[in-house]
Design a protein that fits this description.
mainly alpha; 65% helix
Amino acid sequence: MASPDLVLALLADARLPVGAHTQSAGLEPAVVHGGLTVADVPAFLRGRIATVVAVDAGTAVVARHLSLAGADLTAVEEAWAARTPSQALRQASRTLGRGYLRLAQRLWPGEARLAALTRTPARPVVLGVVAALAGLDAARLVRLCGHEDVATVGAAVLKLLPGDPADTVAWTLAAHPAIEALVARTAALTSPQEIPATAAPLVELQSLQHARTPRRLFHA
């Protein structure tokens, strides 16, 4: 297998064929149902990093830790689900998780830790196992979770709101301190009970509204 840094670059690439392009990281629901504008995007990103991304990053880190120990990940999946009340968001994450799992099984054929996962695992659980297999440390894994969320929002902005594409790069750099703070907060987690339980009521509500929207560009 390639170096951990190369695997990290691969996973962070928006062109990775796992269906992430079908998601907007909550941006489309916020635009359609919350009236979010381009000027609101930096605050929207900070809010997601502090809540939704914190849950996913914590889940991925704990899944990585337990996967390295050869432990069962059922409790991690359950802890993530308990912290993700919206059925729409759980379904979106599991759709992505299935894509990541299929890709990982091509890269690590016959790997028992992948075979032990459910058919539709949550995306951060799969990322945690992939990190364990690829030799990614916990800090890099948290940065991956943070960057992927910011990049997903940035890509969706260009389809949903008028603006300068260069702004998405500036937003990514501006989000770096918040992501590094998340690294300090979550990289040392080792048990499902330690995963952050940070509520994002508007994100949850808008995701449920979006699931009933007949015309939409993104699933969530």
